[in-house]
Design brief:
CATH class of one domain: Alpha Beta
Order of helices and strands: HEEEEHEEH
Radius of gyration: 30 Å
Shape: globular
Number of strands: 6
Largest sheet: 6 strands, antiparallel
Length: 199
């Protein structure tokens, strides 16, 4: 049977224990610094003009006027008026579903209020990262800036009700313009416009 050699423990020199604990504390602080550096920077929301009221929820539909820019100032996206008249059904601005925007935009929008104007600084990790949409002018790894005016917001259910009412009115107008029984044509715009559902 093999004999086990014992190694005697040497006493710790005076002050060494303090140095050991300082070394452990330094290693922990260094590790925490690395972990902090690995966390992507957050979204910056600057209020240009204060709004009022409630903040949008993560499932709402926003109506906004916006301009999206790259770090060098190049505009890669901006709102445009809808191609069909929606007055009386929807507020002015482009409708954006909170569930369909990049995470950083959603995070920033939830800090906005109706009527306010904001500048959002979104780091690449909370925008498109290294995979921008095909055909987009946004390069991989790009930080984004959005100038946003929040006109209004509503629930997705309210948006869908208003959209159905608008589609019914447009269908009735097309039927009237296409001709009534007996060969008579209806006058465009003669259809009464229903009042959209209220929130």
């Amino acid at each position: 049977m093999a004999e086990i050699t014992r190694v005697p423990l040497q006493p710790i020199a005076k002050g060494s224990l303090t140095k050991l604990w300082l070394g452990v504390a330094a290693a922990v602080a260094f590790g925490a610094g690395l972990a902090w550096a690995a966390v992507p920077a957050g979204v910056s929301v600057e209020t240009v003009q204060a709004g009022s009221g409630a903040h949008p929820g993560e499932k709402d539909v926003l109506f906004v006027k916006y301009t999206g820019k790259l770090a060098d100032g190049t505009v890669f996206d901006e709102w445009s008026p809808p191609p069909i008249p929606v007055e009386g059904f929807f507020p002015e601005g482009s409708p954006l579903f909170m569930g369909n925007v990049v995470p950083g935009f959603r995070e920033g929008a939830m800090q906005m209020q109706k009527g306010g104007k904001y500048t959002l600084e979104i780091p690449a990790a909370k925008a498109y990262g290294d995979s921008p949409p095909p055909g987009s002018s946004v390069p991989p790894g790009a930080d984004l800036t959005f100038e946003v005016e929040l006109i209004e917001f509503m629930s997705e259910e309210d948006f869908q009700r208003r959209l159905q009412a608008l589609q019914q009115v447009m269908q009735m107008q097309q039927e009237r313009q296409g001709g009534a029984p007996g060969g008579q044509t209806g006058a465009p715009g003669a259809v009464p416009v229903p009042v959209p559902p209220q929130q």
